Automatic annotation (TrEMBL):
Name of the protein in its database record: Putative RNA-directed DNA polymerase
Domain GAG-pre-integrase: 63-109
A Pfam family that the UniProt record links to this protein: gag_pre-integrs
Record carries keyword Transmembrane helix: no
The entry's keywords: Nucleotidyltransferase, RNA-directed DNA polymerase, Transferase
Domain of life of the organism encoding this protein: Eukaryota
UniProt organism field: Rosa chinensis
EC number, UniProt record: 2.7.7.49
GO MF, one example: RNA-directed DNA polymerase activity
Amino acid sequence: MLLHIQLLIQFKLVMDKVLGRILYQGLSKQGMYPIPFDLPLKFGSTSTSTIPSSFSKTAYVGKTIKNLLWHQRLGHPTNEVVKSMLKKCKIFGDPTVDSTSCEACLLGKFHKLPFPVSQTRSEVPFDIVHSDVWGLALHLSLDGFKYFVIFIDDCTWYT
């Protein structure tokens, strides 16, 4: 049986994808979606059984997701927008990480256009040396560096 679980802001549906039937629907309680086990469960088309009463009556599947992941899933909005949306939806994220550590957002904030393509080349090594600095990287290099610099000789193109 293929199941499809659809979470709306404060409402939950569990559907059979093949038949398109709703198997369970319910409301959110304090940001969680309780599933009562005293409902009959159908296995196949002929048998019906219930979960024994020795089991807990409600199951909760919950995991705290870092705000950075919500930031990426929601299309890279500001920290205030992410926090506001999570609060309105009663979703508890991990506020220790925010979008200031999002590498895509940092790269998207560069404002300087690249230099025009030069038609001339140096004829003597070390006559013109190009350089570029990049950083702050999310992950440290093997030697523990966060910033990187590259030098390119215009004549030989050695780095």
